[in-house]
Amino acid sequence: MESYIRIIKNIDHMQQEARQLLQTGKTIVLVPTMGYLHEGHLALMREGRKQGDALVISIFVNPTQFGPAEDFQAYPRDPDRDVSLAESVGVDIIFTPEAEVMYDKAYQTSVDLEMLPRYLCGPSRPSHFSGVATVVTKLLNIVKPHVAVFGEKDYQQLAIIRRMVHDLNFDVRVIGVPIVRESDGLAMSSRNTYLSEDERRSALSLYKALQRAQKSVAQGIRDAGQLVHSASEVLCSYPNTKIDYVSVCDPGTLENVNRVEGPTLMALAVWVGKTRLIDNTILTIEN
Ligand code: AMP
Fold this sequence. Notes:
- By secondary structure, the chain is of the alpha/beta class.
- The chain folds into 2 domains: 6-177, HUPs (Rossmann fold), CATH 3.40.50; 190-279, Pantoate--beta-alanine Ligase, Chain: A,domain 2.
- It has 8 helices and 9 strands.
- Strands 1-4-3-2-5-6 form a 6-stranded parallel sheet, sandwiched between helices.
- It binds adenosine monophosphate.
């Protein structure tokens, strides 16, 4: 089959392409990624395909959202495989700029939110969400989408982007897609590739901990402290795990709550060996 996917590395070129699409009345959809694509990413793209005429994905390992001791250099990359996976779900354009193109030597602007970055991943990744909000702003200005698609796997990121789009009046509709999991429940992530066989077994603890919490809520437990405690017990029962945080919080503000009284977010970040994994679920009270 002949391939029509286009790969654009240049910002002016992408903006020109976007203007042309808009002039001809096309709806543009953007799915931002850091590449090393998996089924989670592909679910976003399939959703994106339904939402408009031109499906653009970005593949950009954004240096400004990694801390100095984090895995920017080691982050997995496989551009050829990414292209064929993107093709298989009907992507039209891959925008994949170099870091020097996105941030020239004199670059000095960033987008920062006041409250949402303070919670969950914020304390252990202090500059992360500034990097995310800034790069997403740039991508929205470059690709000019009507619709942008993000995963609920990165719940805090999605909340931050929704807030930023609202606060700064970006003319884009943000769509969230549910977490895609491996058959045993592990949330798919490009970082899962770092895991050894033993670590892969321990990585399942995140899903098991969330399941334990949901079961406790179904059994009538409402106290957040108790839910955090029993989820932490599950996490610690697996070898090589170290909890960064276990939080039971308001799904809108991300502030901790004392009790589960309606839909409530449980979010986790756990080190499995040298790999930091995140997962979350909405705890619900069945009627
Ligand atoms: P990343 O390449 O890790 O920056 O992710 C790009 C987008 O894919 C983000 O919006 C993520 O939330 C989303 N994503 C990553 N993994 C999953 C998953 N397992 N399920 C759903 N969305 C995901």
